[in-house]
Amino acid sequence: MNAIGVDVGGTKIAAGVVTPQGRILDEVRYPTPHSPETLIENVAKAIKEVRDGHEVGGVCLAVPGLILASENKVIFSANLHAIEGIPLKDELESKIGLPLSIENDGNAAAWGEFRFGAGSEADHLVFVALGTGVGGGVITDGVLMRGAQGSGGELGHVTIQATGPRCACGNHGCLEALASGTAIGRRARERAVEQPDSALGRLAMRRQVLGEDVTELAGEGNEVALSVLDETGRWLGVGLAGFVNVFNPEVVAVGGGAMEAGELILEAARREVLLRARPPSRDLAEVKVATLGPKSGVLGAAALARDEFSGEYLLGG
Ligand SMILES: [Zn+2]
User: Does pLDDT of 269 surpass 50?
Assistant: First the structure.
């Protein structure tokens, strides 16, 4: 059966009808409103629009934040407070007339990479997405790890430097605070102050330096920008080494917007994994760039919906 995956992000909602083989038949995008009522309305509108003309058996909503699975609710979302505490499943199911499940966006993207992307040949995958924040998910023996309440797999909020910079979650020194797009931007602004004559320093005189600026300058061979990405990669590697030790994955796939910088970050991360992780896990784990890009959330969510609802679909005809 076809299923719909919806990826609810901080700025946009993407919905797609996906075949069992992972082909997106139709896709729509809407801006993410920041009031709960309009949020539900826009998600319902996106689902109805994309469903038009297709036979669909179910929907999975990939949401940014911590989920309480027993209540089908998001209890905390650093980047989308409008989604906190609202009865997503009940309200949406009655509007769209399809069964709907809810999953953390990092978990859904991990499932996408596992089924159709960088982990499609593996049974054990760790996926990390470096964006504004850091999301992630873990698949062990072909099973998505959700934990007791559905809020497991929060790889971005593992503490890797106890006295490190403050994280959006309130803790200090999370992987997210040290190796996200936000962390790249912060590091670049620090370097700009230290070295006002550098390209980053000159850019900082005109406007705020962002993570993307660093990737662009690094691509041109700028030394300061390259060192910012290298430092970010080292911190990423500290986190990945821990994941390699704990989960013994075959593949560690890294995605998200910051992976525009690709090997400029991953090379340093691999070095750190080799230094810190233990054999035999260290020697098995292949650290590579995720392959689905921004579509991993929609593809993974749709695959999760299919797994969950294909039985109901058959029974219901
Ligand atoms: Zn955190």
Answer: yes
pLDDT (0 to 100) of residue 317: 40
Ligand 1 centre to CA of 213 (Å) is 24
- Crossing angle of helices 105-116/296-316, nearest 10°? 80
Does the bond joining 280 to the residue before it have cis omega, within 30 degrees of 0? yes
Q: If you measure from the C-alpha of residue 106 to the centroid of ligand 1, how many angstroms do you get, rounded to a whole number?
A: 14
Distance 301 CA to ligand 1 centre (A): 24
Task: Using alpha carbons, select from 249, 268, 260, 246 the residue that is nearest to residue 289.
Answer: 260
> Please, which residues bridge with residue 8 across strands?
13
Of 97, 99, 103, 116, whose CA–CA distance to 19 is shortest?
Answer: 116
List the end-to-end C-alpha distance of the chain, in Å, as a whole number. Answer: 11
Residue 171 alpha carbon to ligand 1 centre in Å? 5
Residue 61's SS3 state is strand
Ligand 1 mean position, distance from CA 178 (Å): 10
Distance 167 CA to ligand 1 centre (A): 5
- The predicted pLDDT at position 277 comes to 98
User: For 73-132, what is each residue's pLDDT tens digit?
Assistant: 999 988 899 999 999 999 999 999 999 999 999 999 999 999 999 999 999 999 999 998
| CA–CA gap between residue 16 and residue 255 (Å, rounded) | 20
The pTM (predicted TM-score) of the whole model is: 0.95
Separation of CA 159 and ligand 1 centre (Å): 7
Q: State yes or no: pLDDT of 272 exceeds 80.
A: yes
Report the C-alpha gap between 286 and 250 in whole angstroms: 6
Which neighbouring-strand residues pair with 253?
A: 127, 288
Determine the Cα–Cα distance for residues 60 and 307; give it in Å rounded to an integer. Answer: 10
* Inter-axis angle of helices 199-206 and 181-194, nearest 10: 100
